[in-house]
Amino acid sequence: MKWERAISRIVRALCGVPLVVLLTVPYVCAVAEQDDLDSYRLRISGFWFYSQPSGTFRGTNGNGAFDLQNDINFQSYSTPAGEIDWKFTRKNHFYLSATDFSQTKQVVLNRTVNFQGQTYNVGAIVNAKLQSFVLIPGYRYDIIRRKQGNLGVQVQLDLFDIKGTSSAAAQVNNGLPQLATASSGKLRAPLPVAGPTFRIYVIPNSSRLFVTANVMGMYFFGYGNYVSSVGTVGLTLTRNLAIRGGYQLGSRLNVNTQSNRIGLNLTQKGAVAGLEVSF
Question: CB 275: neighbour CB atoms within 10 A?
Answer without folding.
Answer: 15
